[in-house]
Each structure stands twice: as structure tokens, then as C-alpha cells.
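Render this sequence as a predicted structure.
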Amino acid sequence: MHFKLNTASAPALLRLRGVSQNNLRHIDLDLPHGKLVVVTGVSGSGKSSLAFDTIFAEGQRRYVECLSSYARQFVERMDRPKADEITGILPSVALRQGKTIRAARSTVASLTELGELFRLVFAQASSPFCPQCGQAVRRATPSELAAELLAAAAGRRAAITFELPVISTAAARAALEGLAAAGYHRCFEGGKTLALAEVLGVERIGSALAVLQDRLVLDPVEALRLGDSLRQALTRGSGVVSVHIEGQAQATASWQIRETQHGFTELRATSQRRCVACRTPVADPSPQLFSSSSSLGACATCNGFGRIA
């Protein structure tokens, strides 16, 4: 993963004027952003007063002011430093030196307390893959799915379907009654539209019926209809939808080719964290997945201790 800090709108300098915090006496200073700045000096010269009690305190104070009144009660409030003027300051993070208790699981991230911050970033920026077949798993909205279809197969006829698992004939017939009450009477098989009641039989147990949601031409004019049909099919199909496109079709970022037969290419997509290819459910990335102290993220061999007997 690569992250790039956008500094286009950031000020070029941190300007401090008349800093008189603690043992500092009317200090004027300009510090560049995006550079490593080291503050040195003998004991009592004001290094901590400048770095922690002035720069960090003002950056933290202004950041807290931007939060809601509810959020402020959970954040440490800092006093305004004694200075005539401070401009160009950004939100700040400070790591203070202190005595730490080292344990077998201690790392640089845990000792500096940066581990939790990185875990939050990784949980939001990570891209999960299916543990069974290795396919990338992503969550897409109906509007995104519709846009990909229109870009890949504009002008082609398509049938939108969702699956109805046939566990038993009795359960399937009960489900068909509910679908019929909602206006679903047809399925799509072998490139043809058939009545659901006609294709349901004992031989279908263990398979699934492709219930027809809509048939239309993939045209930008029908974008709203396409998005609405995909949304309803995703709801009925537990987050999985199939689109049968006439002729050959290409896979996209969200749509995977399931099969091609009877002159139609079936593309499948999901709005959930579920593999499109094998339908294996994949949990949403969470901070615990990136923690060696959690049972979710710890190595199964060493249990997070990093030692193998």
C-alpha cells in the first residue's frame, strides 16, 4: 500500500512569534513543513517547552476546537501556550519519553502507542482476498455496478436475475408463493424466460433457480432503471446478483464471468464482502485482524509471540 500526503494547500512554514512559554523568552522562529527538524540544547534551555508545551499544545488545541462538543469530552484539552502569534500550524501528534514495561509481545508500535492508529488505517485501506480461491473481494454499490455494465456492454440485451436455492421442494414452493406475491413469476434458463412453477421439480433439489428481476437493453438512458433493478436483485439475492448479457462480455472490476452458454454470458457481482467466484463470505477488515494480541490477528503457529518451539 502506498500513501501520499497532499500538501498542496498546506502552509510552507510554521511561524512562531513572541513565544514565552515556561523558560522561553520572546522567541521568534520559522520552521519548514515536510522537513525533519531537530531541537537540541543543554538541559533547561527550553526544548520541551518549545516542542511539547508550545507547538504540540497549540496544534492539539486547534484540532480539538474543530471537533463537536460531544467528541471534545473524550480528548485531552490543552491550554493555549504563551505566544504573541502562531500561524501555519497543523494537527500534531507527540510521543513523549517515559518508562515503559516491556513484555514478550512488545513491539515498536505498541511501545509508542502507534499500533492502534496503524491498525485503524489498515482496516480502512486494506483490500481483502478470498481465502478459498484467491479472488479479490470488494464491496460495490448498485450505481457502481450499473456504471460498469454500461461501460462494458452498452447496447446489449441483458437479463438481471437473483438465485433462489432449492433446498427441498416444499421449501422452494413456499418461497415461490412469497415471490409470486411480490410479482416474481419467471426465471431465466438456457437463454429463455420460463415460468418458475414449470421448472421446479424434484430433480432441482440442491441447485438454484435464476429468478428474473428485469430484462432490458443496457443503454445510458435506462441507467436509473438498471440501478434500481440491481438494487432489488441484490436485496432478494442476499447481496449477490447475476446479469446474463447476450453474446460475449468482458469481466470488470466488480463483475466476474461465471459461465457462457446458449449465446449469453453470465456475469456475477456482490454488494457484500463475499467472493463473487465461489461465494465464500469474507469478514470486513477490522483493527483486530492486524493485532497480534487478538485471536483474530495472531499467528496460528506462535500465537502472536513470534517464537516457534
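Summary. The longest helix spans residues 47-65. The two ends are 33 Å apart (CA to CA).
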